[in-house]
Amino acid sequence: MSLIPPFAIGPGGGGGSSVPASTYRQSVFSWTGSQAVPIGTIKNLTELVTLSATHIDNAGVTIGPNNCLIFPAVSNPTGITIRVRLTGTIDGTAATTRGWLMQLRREDGLTFIDGERVTKSATDQLLGANTSIETATEGLDDFLTTQGGMVVLDNQSGALITLTSIEILIKRNL
Predict the structure, then answer these.
(1) Tens digit of pLDDT for each residue in 116-139?
(2) Can you tell me the distance from the alpha carbon of 88 to that of 161, in angstroms, rounded to the nearest whole number?
(3) Which pLDDT score is estimated for 32?
C-alpha cells in the first residue's frame, strides 16, 4: 500500500504531480546606454526600459503612457517579484561604502509602495547589482492594474551613479 497521496502521483501512477501546470508568468524589460543619476535625485527606471525581445513574455506587463508598469487585471490576489539588475559606476573612492534605494512607487512618483536599501562597497563598479521588490495585486481594481507602478532608483549614495544597463524581471504568480 502506497503512502503517497493520490494527488502527488502523475498520470499512470509513474511519479510527477497531478497539480495543475504552473501559473508562474514573467516579463523582462531591459535597457543599455548611459544615464547619470545625480546625488539626491530619483530616476524612474521604467521610463528607460523596453520589453526585451530576447525573453519570453507571458505575464503581459506593459509600460503605460505614464512610464509605469501596468499589470493585467485578474480577479484573484497575485504575488509579484520585481528583480532589478543594474550595471554602471559610482563616483568616489573605491573603498567607500555607498547606498541607494530601489523602490516601487505609485504613478505620482511620491507614494512609496515597497522597496529595499541596496548597499554597494569596495569598488566603483556596479556589475549586475541585484535588488528584489516583493508586492502583490489584490483584484481587478488594484492600482497596479489601473494606474501602474514605477521602479525608481533614489540616489542617496553621496556620489554620482552612472547606469549603463538595466534589466527588470517581473515574476507573477497567478
Answers:
(1) 777 665 678 888 788 889 999 999
(2) 7
(3) 95
Q: Which residue, 21, 24, 19, is CA-closest to 173?
A: 24
Where on the phi/psi map is residue 3: left (φ > 0), alpha (ψ -120 to 50), or beta?
Answer: alpha
Q: CA 166: distance to chain centroid?
A: 11
Determine phi and psi for 14, rounding to 5 degrees.
Answer: -95, 30
Task: Locate the DSSP E strands across 12-124.
Answer: 24-37, 42-44, 50-51, 62-63, 69-70, 78-90, 98-106, 112-120
**Locus of grid cell 485578474:** 74
Burial of 95 (0-12, 13-18, 19+ CB in 10 A): exposed
Instruction: Kindly state the average pLDDT of the residues 137-142.
Output: 92
For residue 108 the three cell numbers come to 505620482
Nearest CA-CA partner of 108 in 41, 44, 40: 44
Of 107, 110, 100, 90, whose CA–CA distance to 163 is shortest?
Answer: 90
Q: Contact at 8 Å (CB) between 102 and 112?
A: no
Q: What is the CATH code of the structural domain delimited by 23-173? A: 2.60.120.1120
Residue 23 backbone phi and psi in degrees, to 5: -105, 20
pTM value is 0.81
> Would you put residue 146 in left (φ > 0), alpha (ψ -120 to 50) or beta?
alpha
